[in-house]
Amino acid sequence: MTEETTPHTQSEARTDGGTASGADTVAIDPWGSSTIDDYRKLFDEFGIESFDELLPDVPHPHYLMRRGVIFGHREYDRVAEAMQNDEPFAALSGFMPTGDPHIGHKLVFDELIWHQQQGGDAYGLIADLEAHSARGISWDEIDEHATNYLLSLIALGFDAEDGTLYRQSTNREVQDLAFELGSRAKFSEFEAIYGFDGETSISHMQSVVTQMADILYPQLADEPKPTVIPVGPDQDPHVRFARDLAVKMRYFKVSKAFASFEASDAERPLLADAYEALTDGGDEPVRCEDAATWLADTDAAPAFAAAQSSAVSKLEAAGKEPLRPRVRFFHRHGPEDAFEAMIGAIEGEKRVYDGHIDAFELTVADAEELARAVEVENGGFGFMQPSSIYHRFMSGLTGGKMSSSIPASHISLLDDPEEGYNKVKSASTGGRATAAEQRERGGEADKCPVYELYAYLLASDDDEFAKHVYDECVNGERLCGDCKEQAAQLMQSFLEDHQEKREEARELLSELDIDLDLDRRGPGGAH
């Protein structure tokens, strides 16, 4: 048993994805059927952070977090901090109604519901514009699937009276926000992020901008706040694009600076080093020309050679200007009144230039909050970059990826309970060729779709039970027939209970302000 395939239990909460390594590339496609062969490569190639270091900071973590099913994040520490301090935060996830909800979708349902239970504002949306434009699903089919998704979400515990449920196509606020975001989105970005080309329909591109609006929508209520988007890693392109647009929509860019000139991200640490080295605690200011001499005589790592050269040139050009740390408010766009308001809002020493303001008595964090407040007061959105968490894909019951188009590979939340029982009984396993070999060598639970059912769903919040099943398997005490029988019975009971609760949810769903029977025409148009 290698490190890559160690099980995820309460006592062993490893979060590197738990899959065998060996893939040369990682392909991420929100509409394709690609799988992630090595989740750890996402950390290096796309900047996704490992969840394990953050886990101790999450109050009452969900069992999907404890067992490493949730393996990565982007800036989830903001959300965790809001939970710890009982501050506002939100969670949002969307569901594309192209088929029946199945047990793979339950991961997202559970994550959204858990965040709501932790005090977050929860948003569940039906991505019907995406389904119609990207997959060519008819509006009648979308209506049926949308109803089924929402019934399962409510049956699993989503508080529809406290949370927000909506359809993209009927939410005017989302559509208006999408229009504004579209003013900052360039076709070159669609090409680079999604591979769109001259054959991609305008409706498909429009649906993407609408998804960006969905992701930022929770921040329209009351005030900007940390917002988490629980997704599979294939949806990361949407998260990255939304984070970029959130920044582009901001009136002000806040950064550290050291002189009147603008420094790059690579140059700023070098300027900081020069300032610290030349500061003697006296009243004499550090001059840019002196810093240029010091920096030119300092050996820099090869990776910083270009930044060192450019920083020296800028310092030399600044001459006798003092080199002094400050926070810079750069006015990107927005009304001139916002710039004037920003000048007035900064207390203490400041310098006003054409297009930016330097403040000498603020931290970067305080400056960010001030810039956001001034922006909102002057008609802007003040968006925070959305956070995200990433969960592993469930394996198909027949091996490979779980797919809605392969009925035997998944269990629909609408399946007859007896059919669910039979699918589990017919599932592939990580067992050995014979019972004798299984007893001697133990099973391979980390390669077993049936064990995944225990870890992801059937063991629920009981970590000890999940660990017990795993240990019995790998120690050769549990044979596949008995294991599948137990899992099949648990699955049957789960489906029976879930479908009873779905029927109870129908009346509640009918009372909600969400139109599930749209009178729309249109043939659809898959890209």
TrEMBL record:
User: What is an annotated GO biological process for this record, any one?
Assistant: tryptophanyl-tRNA aminoacylation
Q: Which Gene3D superfamilies match?
A: HUPs, Tyrosyl-Transfer RNA Synthetase
A GO MF annotation of the entry reads:
tryptophan-tRNA ligase activity
List, alphabetically, the InterPro entries matched.
aa-tRNA-synth_Ic, Rossmann-like_a/b/a_fold, Trp-tRNA-ligase, Tryptophan-tRNA-ligase_arc
The superkingdom of the source organism is Archaea
Q: Which residues form a coiled coil?
A: 484-515
Q: Where located? A: Cytoplasm
The UniProt keyword set, sorted, is:
Aminoacyl-tRNA synthetase, ATP-binding, Coiled coil, Cytoplasm, Ligase, Nucleotide-binding, Protein biosynthesis
Query: Is Protein biosynthesis tagged as a keyword?
Result: yes
GO annotations of cellular component type: cytoplasm
Q: Motif 'HIGH' region: which ranges? A: 97-105
- The answer to keyword Cell membrane applying to this record is no
E.C. no: 6.1.1.2
Q: Which reaction does it catalyse?
A: tRNA(Trp) + L-tryptophan + ATP = L-tryptophyl-tRNA(Trp) + AMP + diphosphate + H(+)
Q: Where is this motif: 'KMSKS' region?
A: 401-405
Q: Which family does it belong to?
A: Belongs to the class-I aminoacyl-tRNA synthetase family.
Q: What does this protein do?
A: Catalyzes the attachment of tryptophan to tRNA(Trp).
Listed name of the protein: Tryptophan--tRNA ligase
Q: Which organism is it from?
A: Natronocalculus amylovorans
User: Species lineage, top-down?
Assistant: Archaea, Methanobacteriati, Methanobacteriota, Stenosarchaea group, Halobacteria
Report the gene name.
trpS
